[in-house]
């Protein structure tokens, strides 16, 4: 039994759909293993459930390199910062805030350890968890321009939604 399956077995009966969806979205599909696991890792980190992070990373290591794990964690960390900053600017709606430079370091975003488009996909998924419209729009545009399809984006967001829901279910007593 994989680490994620073991952890999913702890999800209460109210989260049965999430448990089944978790197995389905982590199965091979339109995404490469690097994309699928990178998205899952970024979303587990963004969802802030350490047990889920550990399980997802443990299962991912059987299929992906350490660089992909590192990029996924970095994407979640940067989006943790950017989602707050850019969501604030968007929601406040004052053009004057957009005139000021962010002055936030995010070099990893432009120089990931691995594939740039995959890193952007991890950032998109983490931004979906973080709920930042402007970040989601920006990263979705980059991954589509980078050659990914809307089906691949859709599958990444299905992973994001399900991993986030699993994190919630694992917190229920």
Account of the protein in words:
This protein is an all-alpha fold and 173 residues long. It has a single domain (3-171), classed as AhpD-like, CATH 1.20.1290.10. It is 73% helix and 0% strand. It has 10 helices and no strands. It has helices at residues 3-8, 16-25, 33-46, 50-60, 66-92, 95-99, 107-110, 116-130, 133-145, 150-171. Helix 3 packs antiparallel against helix 4 (50-60) and helix 3 (33-46) runs parallel beside helix 8 (116-130). The longest helix has 27 residues, at 66-92. The radius of gyration is 16 Å and the shape is globular. The protein starts with a helix and ends with a helix. The mean pLDDT is 96.
Features:
single chain, mainly alpha, 10 helices, 173 residues
Order of helices and strands: HHHHHHHHHH
Number of strands: 0
User: What is the top-level CATH class?
Assistant: Mainly Alpha
Q: Give me the CATH architecture, please.
A: Up-down Bundle
Q: What's the N-to-C terminus distance?
A: 23 Å
Query: Helix- and strand-based class?
Result: mainly alpha
Mean pLDDT over all positions: 96
- The percent range for strand residues is under 5%
CATH topology: AhpD-like
| Contiguous helical run count | 10
Give the CA-based shape.
globular
Structural domains: how many: 1
CATH superfamily: AhpD-like
* Percentage of residues assigned to helices: over 70%
Give the low-pLDDT segments: none
Please give the largest β-sheet.
Answer: none
Rounded to an integer in angstroms, the radius of gyration calculated over CA atoms is 16 Å
